[in-house]
């Protein structure tokens, strides 16, 4: 089968012929229909410092996908051929304290699909049935392809109650945009999104935010004044991974404000801890998705009319992967989809 492979320990990505995976006991074999390109895939393509320590070559990339089940291994009963599925990209150990307690998203031995084992940028992928989410209601295939990052957005956006609250989201990348859509849909009063890319802020406006603010040109305090806010934001969602964005957020929170932090900083950095203490701010790190509570929420949010249409901005056949990766790396658009049936 065709697959996008990191063949060698150097920058690049290769479209190669690799053996089709066979479903072992408890696995399902999935014919991949569409996949989403993630920042992680760009890091692995570029083979940066993180990728050099995280990835052993050769490896098939990719973790965001939708596909159709074509075969099941021994012992799989709830999933059958023909089911439309997306995959949870975190494979957990099943044995640690958190796994045994049902808190699988907190597993300390998580292996990433397309990072620690072969992934979904291929015509077929085999996954444990326990990592598969069956779409039981009709869903747009492009949206189904990005359930993994959509889950990051939902996990973050629903970490703290947002009904009637003023929400600040730093970073209008694909995940920040989806979190903005969720916070809006979930009943926030104001949703303010910041970025430095005017194109991405324009996408945020399409999603329906109260204010899309370019922090290269105005401050978040200016934004507060514009909206008539007097005491700061109730809920913050950090979606950029940038130190200055978290510092800006901290300086604009209300006392007792709550921050869910998804953005992954690449280095240590300092923040004003004294103000976190005296303002009694809560900061919660968010990794992945809750299995499978977040997935349930994603499906029902879509059923309830949540629109992610503006977030998907690029569509390419898998053979055009170089153009698709360049699009995703431009940092100016939304989510980029590869079609594996074209
Ligand atoms: N914790 C997890 O499980 C998890 C999973 C996926 C991604 N992530 C991280 O979440 C973040 C969001 O992912 P993404 O794919 O949307 O990323 P992205 O890199 O596409 O988006 C980040 C955005 O932040 C903007 N930005 C830069 N400086 C800023 C500033 N000072 N203020 C506001 N915005 C600023 C960038 O212009 C960009 O549009 C990334 O840091 C990513 O590494 C975490
Ligand atoms: Zn991803
Ligand atoms: Zn575990």
UniProtKB/TrEMBL annotation:
Residues with site note (Important for catalytic activity for the proton relay mechanism but does not participate directly in the coordination of zinc atom): 148
Binding note for cofactor: Binds 2 Zn(2+) ions per subunit.
Binding site for NAD(+): 175, 195, 200, 262-264, 286-287
Assigned keywords, A-Z: Cytoplasm, Metal-binding, NAD, Oxidoreductase, Zinc
GO MF terms, alphabetically ordered: L-threonine 3-dehydrogenase activity; zinc ion binding
GO cellular component terms listed in the entry, alphabetical order: cytoplasm
Binding-site residues, Zn(2+) 1: 38, 63-64
Domain Alcohol dehydrogenase-like C-terminal: from-to ranges: 174-300
Pfam families from the UniProt entry: ADH_N, ADH_zinc_N
Pathway given in the UniProt record: Amino-acid degradation; L-threonine degradation via oxydo-reductase pathway; glycine from L-threonine: step 1/2; Metabolic intermediate biosynthesis; 2-deoxystreptamine biosynthesis; 2-deoxystreptamine from D-glucose 6-phosphate: step 3/4
Function: Catalyzes the NAD(+)-dependent oxidation of L-threonine to 2-amino-3-ketobutyrate. Catalyzes the oxidation of 2-deoxy-scyllo-inosamine (DOIA) with NAD(+) or NADP(+), forming 3-amino-2,3-dideoxy-scyllo-inosose (amino-DOI).
Protein name as annotated: L-threonine 3-dehydrogenase
């Amino acid at each position: 089968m065709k697959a996008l492979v990191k063949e060698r320990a150097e920058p690049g990505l290769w479209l190669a012929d690799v053996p089709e995976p066979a479903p072992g006991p408890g696995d399902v074999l999935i014919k991949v229909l569409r996949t989403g390109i993630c920042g992680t895939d760009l890091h692995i393509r570029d083979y940066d410092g993180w990728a050099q320590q995280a990835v052993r070559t050769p490896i098939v990339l990719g973790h965001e996908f939708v596909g159709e089940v074509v075969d099941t291994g021994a012992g799989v009963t709830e999933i059958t051929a023909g089911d439309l599925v997306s995959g949870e990209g975190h494979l957990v150990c099943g044995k640690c304290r958190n796994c045994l307690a049902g808190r699988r998203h907190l597993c300390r031995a998580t292996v990433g699909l397309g990072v620690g084992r072969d992934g979904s940028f291929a015509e077929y992928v085999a996954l444990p049935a326990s990592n598969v989410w069956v779409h039981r209601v009709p869903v747009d295939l492009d949206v189904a392809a990005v359930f993994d990052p959509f889950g990051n957005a939902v996990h973050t956006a629903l970490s703290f109650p947002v009904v009637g609250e003023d929400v600040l989201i730093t970073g209008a990348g694909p995940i920040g945009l989806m979190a903005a859509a969720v916070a809006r849909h979930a009943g926030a009063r104001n949703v303010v999104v910041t970025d430095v890319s005017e194109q991405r802020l324009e996408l945020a406006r399409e999603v329906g935010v109260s204010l899309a603010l370019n922090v290269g040109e105005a401050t978040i305090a200016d934004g507060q004044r514009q909206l008539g806010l007097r005491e700061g934001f109730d809920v913050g969602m950090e979606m950029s991974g940038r130190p200055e964005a978290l510092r800006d957020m901290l300086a604009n929170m209300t006392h007792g404000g709550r921050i869910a932090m998804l953005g992954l900083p690449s280095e240590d950095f300092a923040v004003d801890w004294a103000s976190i203490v005296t303002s009694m701010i809560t900061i919660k790190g968010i990794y992945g998705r809750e299995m499978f509570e977040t997935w349930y929420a994603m499906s029902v949010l879509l059923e309830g009319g949540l629109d992610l249409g503006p977030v998907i901005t690029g569509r390419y056949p898998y053979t055009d992967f170089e153009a698709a990766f360049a699009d995703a790396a431009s940092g100016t658009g939304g989510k980029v989809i590869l079609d594996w049936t074209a």
